[in-house]
Amino acid sequence: MTRPLAGGRWLALLPVAAVLAYTDTASAHANLSPPTVTAKTSQLFTLAVPTEKEGATTTQIELTPPDGFTIDSFVAAPGWKRATDQTGSGEEVDITKATWTGGSVPTGEAATFQFVGEPGAAKTYAFKVRQTYSDGTVVDWSGGADTPAPAITAKDSLGGGGGGGGTLAVVDFLIATLALVAGAIALLLRAGGRELA
Hints:
The chain is an alpha+beta fold. It is 22% helix and 38% strand. It has one domain (8-191): Sandwich (Immunoglobulin-like). It is globular and about 45 Å long.
């Protein structure tokens, strides 16, 4: 007995699709990546700030690092000019704020900036971000319900022992799920309209 490819098989993929859609919607705010890092280790961070306002562009971003977090250097951001507020000099310089101006990021896109930084201890660090639009509107990403502050968590070790790898385990699970979904879709598309025994 043969039967056509059941539409119910597509229904099995809906929970995964819903989770992915929610993740995409929930991430529409200023954020820093990677979200979990090793304390007392210099690493590359990426700040992404979305342009959410219709009919305006993002023209300025200010980043204020929290106490205990050191910014060592910046990656050039094409189309933007960068200025820093700092104290000290040479190897003792302490960057207290970075401001990028001159860009023009349209609605639906994100302004992205990279820098090398080091969390000084194992704890959570919340950064203050101030976004200015072309119409003069300002959004302070500093911890409000609708404007959460971008944050990272620094740990002494990112090893999987003792349950410390929870965040990494979730990431691994999501990657595996995406691979599984992609494989299932590829198989279903390959089967096309054929009837399966």
